[in-house]
Specification:
The chain has eight helices and 28 strands. It is α+β, with helices and mostly antiparallel strands. 34% of the residues are buried.
């Protein structure tokens, strides 16, 4: 070993102690650096020959494994729809490599890398055995595999130095394109294998404006993610309810007030989502689309189930409540280094609090009906005006008189109310019926009718014929007897 290399060896010994990376031998590191320089020189010549430059990534200068291409297909076995960022899922081979701590966020999230930071001040292309790499058009693009609190992350600003012992400030990244790229990479398992992770790294930086070679742009997975970023359509993780503010209708069949369905509107691929409703007292019920009925209290409803509220016909009031859910909204997070001269990181995260649907307001009001009495002549069926009736209900008493149509109406009586109707006065020549009291029950939205029929008063008409002279029934002249005379009884209109 040359004197120069020995001096490098001594320097690195101090460097290892400072960073606590005792597990790697100094000799291996020194040899790695030496080999790296050799490869860097070789790769530089190739770059001059092909006259291609890239700004989003650098030609690799390490002598690390070339097995990534053959292994990349293994990771694609994950089925679409399975989230690749679940901490409960078995870690892939590339995920297992993210074991070197390179920073921490202000929210105490650990930032881990597959690249050993002690080897050198790395850039995003990496130059140690932990890198993830892929060839595009004969040129290798590499990046460290980064995780933040176990979630895959992507380096951006690839021309800046790789982070080592950095402090980061976590912020929400309000860019729907970034979110969509991360969402599809997660959904399709691109974080589980080396090739696809590099594709995601390239697509993300291309989308963010980093100059990208034609060979990279032509890669199907890179193009797919880039186009998704430019035309974002990933579920945003929203939750809402239809018909949040409404006034109940009256169901004439059930005789209940009834709202329209409150139907969940969910923009998420999540499962197991529940929302919580509140039911007040007073006879109000919640009825679900799968046939369940809930009374007073709070109740959890599954994401695909609708709910409506019912109340008695005489119920009045607003049912107001908020609807908490267990759905946390996914959002891209950007981790800003306190030292601006190193790379930023983006990762999929969640807003701190689950979604709550605000301002549900269901209005109910007592349903009313009318009571009508009609007075008819029992013999002729003709109407009888000016007849008086007494209505008694709910402790109230109200006297009414029939109009020219023989009708009298009492309006706006609560549904289900029992009303007693008593005939108290009848005009001549009618007489009060002995059965002069009847009872009716009010139905909401209807006119409940009742009839009273009365007979006219009857009597006798006696006609006595007398002799005008004798002023008795004895005639003055027997030739003109008092018997056998005929008379007619005529009405005022001259009819018999």
């Amino acid at each position: 070993m040359s004197k120069k290399m020995k001096r490098v060896l001594a320097s690195l010994s101090v460097f290892f102690v400072l960073f606590g990376s005792i597990g790697q031998t100094v000799i291996t590191t020194a040899e790695s650096i030496s080999e790296s320089k050799v490869e860097q020189s070789s790769e530089s010549k190739k770059e001059e020959k092909k006259k291609e430059t890239t700004s989003s990534s650098k030609v690799s200068d390490s002598t690390t494994n070339k097995e990534s291409s053959s292994n990349s297909e293994k990771g694609k076995e994950q089925k679409t729809g399975e989230s690749s960022n679940s901490n409960d899922s078995p870690k892939s081979e590339i995920e297992e490599q993210a074991k070197y701590a390179v920073g921490i966020s202000n929210t105490d999230k650990k930032i881990m890398s597959s690249v050993n930071p002690v080897s050198t001040m790395l850039r995003s292309n990496g130059n140690s055995s932990g890198k993830a790499s892929k060839n595009y058009g004969g040129y290798e693009t590499s990046t460290a595999y980064i995780t933040i609190d176990g979630q895959p992350a992507i380096c951006i600003d690839p021309d800046l130095p790789f982070p080592i012992n950095q402090e980061y400030i976590e912020q929400t990244y309000n860019d729907y394109g970034v979110y969509t790229i991360l969402w599809y990479a997660q959904e399709k398992g691109f974080f589980n294998n080396e090739d696809d992770y590099v594709d995601t790294f390239v697509a993300m930086n291309w989308y963010l404006g980093v100059e990208t070679s034609a060979a990279k742009q032509a890669d199907p997975d890179v193009a797919f993610l880039y186009n998704k970023g430019k035309n974002p359509d990933a579920p945003k993780g929203s939750f809402d309810l239809s018909n949040k503010v409404q006034t109940a209708d009256f169901n004439t069949t059930s005789k209940l007030q009834e709202t329209k369905w409150l139907e969940p509107k969910l923009d998420s691929n999540s499962t197991g989502i529940e929302y919580t409703i509140t039911v007040p007292s007073g006879g109000v019920k919640a009825v679900t689309s799968d046939g369940e009925t809930f009374g007073v209290g709070t109740h959890k409803i599954k994401q695909n189930i609708k709910v409506k509220y019912t109340a008695p016909a005489n119920y009045t009031g607003d049912v107001t409540f908020d609807v908490p859910t267990n759905l946390k909204v996914q959002t891209p997070l950007i981790f800003m280094p306190t030292n601006s001269n190193v790379q930023r990181l983006v990762s999929m995260g969640y807003l701190a609090d689950p979604i709550t649907v605000k301002g549900v307001k269901l209005t109910f009001f007592a349903r009313l009906g009318d009571a009508k009495v009609t007075k008819l002549d029992k013999g002729t069926g003709k109407v009888v005006p000016n007849t008086e009736f007494l209505f008694e209900y709910d402790g109230k008493k109200e006297t009414v008189k029939t109009n020219e149509k023989g009708e009298a109406t009492v309006k706006d009586i609560l549904h289900g109310t029992k009303v007693t109707v008593t005939e108290t006065f009848v005009p001549a020549p009618y007489i009060l019926d002995t059965n002069n009291t009847k009872e009716i029950t009010i139905e909401a939205g209807k006119v409940t009718s009742i009839e009273f029929k009365n007979e006219r008063a009857t009597g006798k008409t006696t006609l006595t014929k007398q002799d005008a002279t004798t002023e008795s029934n004895e005639p003055l002249n027997s030739a003109y007897p008092m018997t056998g005379a005929k008379y007619g009884l005529f009405k005022e209109d001259g009819t018999l």
